[in-house]
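Support request, please re-run this one:
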Amino acid sequence: MKLKLPERRRFIRIEIPLKVRIEGGGASQEVVTKNISPIGMRFEIDRELDASGGLDLSLFIPTSKEPISMKGKVVWQKKVSLEDGAPFDVGLEIVEVADENKNTLLKYLCDLLYDSPYKIRL
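Re-run finished. Output below.
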């Protein structure tokens, strides 16, 4: 019998591929999210990120002409496989969202939830 542990996450992760530009450590790279929530995101990247510093992020969502500006920090990262050149799977915490972008981000995520399999059926 498997023991079901209580869910520790505060927010549901929405599995959706969104383009994100990551800038930090003198480099800039675009990645695609695996999942996202109001406080974090997960993606794969071809290099290890500097976990000690902050990252500048630009999130591109289909409902906005301009990208959403935010700051993030690496919470965890691990190599996807033991092969040379394998990408890193990264969990990133969103630590700051530009004031002018907060409503846009939250509305977009909320709209996604209404069309997700997580919605409650009565």
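The chain has a mean pLDDT of 86. The helical segments are 102-114.
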